[in-house]
Design a protein that fits this description.
Blueprint lengths: L1 H18 L4 H25 L7 H21 L6 H5 L1 H22 L3 H6 L1 H20 L15 H9 L1
Length: about 160
Amino acid sequence: TFLAKGSAALEKLKDLCNDGKEPPSALFQLYTQAVLDITYFEENQLVDEDFPEETSLQKLKELICILSEPEDLVRECNIDEEPINMLGAELLECLYWRKGALLYMYCHTAKERREWLRGNIATFKKCLNDGVHYLMKMLSFRCPLQLNEDVLLEDKDTARLLSEG
């Protein structure tokens, strides 16, 4: 299972840290993979439970925070490298994909809760905007989009045209 894989990765990480022979990038990547494995299990629980109205928003915030930790950790360690150089494009894409997809799935479920939506429209819009931001960031790692402040991405065709140059 994903929890077992995540736990095994953390054990291996502990051994490698004690050994001191691995480059920092390998340690960051192993940690990131453990984070992805463990959060995948929790994300699936939220989806399987149809994002319980009482607890899912808090759990969503926690998961996004956890999925942000690898990139934050690289920055906090004062290593003179960008996160993409330490984690690699593939892992960074996964982190941002998971954050964006999680928010998308939450919003898709929340939009059906009319009563909740009426009282929480600002929260709903923030989740949508954050989700789009994460997905656009995910797309930018291999094919950076150079946008100025005047560009509004109002549909997928606009985003596709801009990403293709």
